[in-house]
Amino acid sequence: MNGNTDHFNNLNPPQVGGTTQHSQASSTSLHDLSQIHGALDAVYGPHSTNDQRQEATAFLEQAKRDSQAPHFGYGLASDQSQPASVRHYGLSLLEYPIKYKWEDLEEQDSSVLRSWVIQLAQNLDDNDAAFLRNKIAQLLEEVAKRSWAVEWLDLDTLLVELWQGSLTHKVLVLYVLEMLSDDIFNRDDAAAALREKELSKACVDIFVPTAVLNQHYPSRDVKVEVRCGDEGWISRLCGLLDWSLDNHPPKNDRVHSCIVKTLSCLKAAVTWIMPKALHATRCLDHLCKALSVADVGVQMATTEVLYAFYKRTQGPFIKEVEYTDLFTAMLLPDRVNLLKHVYQYSTVDIRDLDYPKYALCKKFTEVLSSIGEFIEERPSAIPPNGTDLTSFFDLLVEILRSPSLVVSIPVLHAWTRLLRCRAVTSSETVTRLIPVLLETCSSRLLRYESLPDDADDDISLFLCEDFDTVPERHAFLGNYRRYCMDIVEVIVRLKPFDAMYYILGQAERLFSNPYEGQVASAAAYGKKSIPFLRVEAQVTIIEAALKGYLRWLDDEETIDKEREAQCKALESYSEQWCRTILTIPMEDPAIKMKIIQTVTMFATKVLLRDSDLGMWVVEYLLSLDAANDFDISRHSEAAKSLEVQVTNDLGRLAILNANNLLRRYDQIEIRVKQILNDSSSDERRKAGCQALLFTIVQRATILDDGTRGPRLQAMLQPVKHAWQSTDVLSAASSYESFCAFLGLDQIVEFMTKQDFDKTEDWATCELNAEGKAKQAEIMARCDRIPLRLTKTMLAASTEKLKEDSSSFKTACLLWTDVLPVLLPSVLRLIGYSQAFTDLATWSHLPTEYQRLIRKVLTDRFWQAGISNESKEDFYARINGSRTSYEGFASTVRGSVRQIRETCYFILYGMTRLQEHFFGIPDLAEPLAQALFTNANGLSAHQLSVLLSMSSALIEECPRSLRPQFLPPMMINLFTNLDNRISADWDALERQKLEIVASGLLVEEMKSESILRQLTYSTITLIANILDHPNGSSRRRLPSLPSLEPTLRTFVLSHPAILEPLVLFSTHALRMRDIRSCTIVITVLRSIIPSFQDSPHAPSSPSITPSTIAAAPQVREFISTEVLKACITSLHEPYFVDLQRELASLIASILLLYGPTTSTPRDILLSLPGMSVEKVDRAFDRIIRRSKGDDKYQRAVVLDLLEGLRGVSIHEQGRMERSQRRERPKVQQRFMEVDSEVQGQGTGRAASPDLAGVADMFGDN
């Protein structure tokens, strides 16, 4: 099509886009080239001031809205005598009406605009700057998205004509085709989505050869012909690629660029085009030819094309023979040799890193992984003859053993699938590789993130190169180890006896000599020592192997006599192996803990039948005394961890070996009494031993109920009597008594006397004798409250018991007698311990004393990826300061925190008692008061613990008791959380600049990270309550009849509960946490239909009369506040990755509430630049024309609000790629870590100061 510009050559050019009046000054300035030059110089000039740059930008932006701007822009863009920056600005003057005014243009005006863009494309010159050529191609594509295949039918003719021109014109065509493919099929482009049906059909028509279309769509509609010729663009692209490779060496920069651009265009096309077209055009042959070129750039571009196609695992074409052929063709011998050659060519040395080759290697292994996964999915599709699977699998093993874990992880993942395919593992080709796979995966279960920073092995060096932050590395390595464990498990299932003997023999050799002949040094003990890491990795291997062995036993429906004999021999060997390794002398408590963990796994998972190993291990653990057997002064934390492990293992062993242990009960009881009477035994160990006896009696099936009940009741009497003691009752009588009982009633005076207020660095100042005595007194007084014993006994009573079992019912009856005694004191202790941490409690003190208390109450905590030291170093520093002033302060706040959080845990344990706890009369109100009255004083991470416990109270409440228990709990909880979290986010935004200026950025990042986690936990709870998939319920109950409504129905039918949930969700839309916002958007979308006032509204059990009664108020709130929050977030660059989700939420509001209330329409009309016609057109499209198409509805919203979005999705992506190194997709795929946790917002660039943001909705 040749455009006619005569229409604009008269003296008074018509106004494109309407008849908007403009001042003479505006018109004059628009045509004053000196002002344009001056403004552009000010914008791009390095010496311009901010005011000059802003003023120039405002002038240039305002000029785009002038009615004569398109005419003037065309003149500038087509004038090759103008500087490139001026011509580019001229193109932006053309772009504005195309993108933002197209639907308001008269047909004549849009035709002229199209003709101008076409002429610019036709008149391209080889000397034009690349950014000018790209911009013209972009304008051509923007016009195509809006008019092609309707009023403009000869786009393909134009492209073919340009294709026949110079190399510059070919590149322009490639750019247009690539953008069309991406915007129509691969991206969520608003303009393309509005016309998706017409554009997608037209795209298929021009890309696919006519012969293939006639074969695949013999009855297709050809009334509107948009193609030029029968060849199709896939064929033309392959032809250009082939010609370029044959006739022009890649060292020619222009031809090389053309080759890469051709491959980029193919990459966009192969994601959607039918495999028949690729097969008919021999596209794979051309790609393999490009892959064989010894040029990293060409090979990388080719690899991207292959990866884009081989990741197509869904769609109507995947069952076609041609789809299968495109995979199996890569398994031919010459193709496998090519793949091997490319991989070996791209292999790099970490000490002399070739970055382009390394990038190629990482992407290339993903292609091979996809081919491997195809083999697993369709083994029968692989031809038995002609393919070289042996060499291909050898190549996969070679890649698996690469020192770069990022290179090997795609293939590692593929092996986890291949080894589960019986057709694959039954082949000798794969069977012979199993020993290598087992050895490789076993060797890589080491925790590389714990190796010293100066580790010089290749794997560690590659990890340092690939990951910038510790959390990223941890997440990746966690996934890598998970895949390795999976392979170990599958191999054991395939070869159970050979693999188990090999693994256990390897482990015994390591456990017998973890130091490899070197003298063990206590200074080297710790979780970062090489011996410990090796032992830990071996334990992980055994854990995976046991899981595989147990699954093998489950898989085998019948085991013949030979297999049964093999099983018995293996179990006998395993039992002797456990006894051997457990008695190996070991001075390092951390390694000892791992060995105990291993033996416990065998005793509780494998050796349960015909074995007394469990009883023997219990006796061994009871004889172990970590505090005395190990030098606790040198490695106290490891010894304490060992004690915790021993206590936990005793509980697990008692549950599974109760009958055997009951037969030795008298001997066990004697040892337990010795421990209880030993003054050196700590409270944790004593409580664990008492719980051990309780569990044996409760779980032993050989004990009759008449004997069991009285014995268990007697065991609980110490708990009951302890809560009735004078000390405890006095401590729980008032806040003052609570402080006095702990020795904290005169704490300010004591610390002042010790000169705490005059000491700046508390960690460096040692306590005197009086201070140490006071510290010991506080800890001793805290232990006098029977919290640990209660928590341990309560957990032991219900752990791993089914609610319909007799043991569970017995436990409930036993605790029913105890709850009334301890519950009042527990609730008061919670209130007092929360009040102690509330600064308002200390407001009566002088200012200097308040500062002292604030410092005492400030928790020290370590944050992954933010703290400047490792976790081990942090705890070592904390332990080293125990006798310092800082250690004293830690004792004060730690004692109060221990009381508070142990009480939380006790309440959590009570929830397992079901109606015996929730049914206590008049419990809800005092419980809510105790939990939330003083909760404002808790820090964000302390509040997270309260939230976790509150979640259990909500989720575990029996359905029949919800009306009497949940309302006060949920209203108080979410009201407090909303007030606190919203205030913290507001304060965080206000303080950022001050904190950065003061150098306290690390502390601010810690606070922000904790706040993000608290926000996410709250949103997750809301999602769970409203039964959204993002929720993470502790217990998913089976579906019950509608007579027993779900928690979602309960909440939606109680407006008083729903209000704080919706209010917090609305505020969360503005909180700068992508994870939370993503979930809250989907949650809000899920509840919007429940309040739809329409005869066509979906029927649902969650819609009750109460829901219907509250619907008008909820609709108005969502139509006003939620809609405003969505639009405001859509406007901010921070939320650029959520624009699609926000647009979907807005579309839901307009679709479901628009017919009922005018509020959404009024809100949209209050936005700057919105016209009645534009808004009404959007409503018409969404309500009447969308036909339930979410993508179309979202596109309408994004198109409507295009001018309000601060930065578009694609443009924001380009900005980010230019500012920071782009992480390879292989790392993103295998690294599930939320960037928000790492402080994604650490680069705190302020949002652009766009006019009308503050008053966007016309509010004063």
TrEMBL record:
GO terms for molecular function: nuclear export signal receptor activity; RNA binding; small GTPase binding. GO terms for biological process: protein export from nucleus; RNA export from nucleus. Residues 1-31, 1212-1260 are annotated as: Disordered. Gene3D superfamilies: Leucine-rich Repeat Variant. It comes from the Eukaryota. Residues 56-142 form the Importin N-terminal domain. PROSITE patterns: IMPORTIN_B_NT. Belongs to the exportin family. This is Importin N-terminal domain-containing protein. It comes from Viridothelium virens.
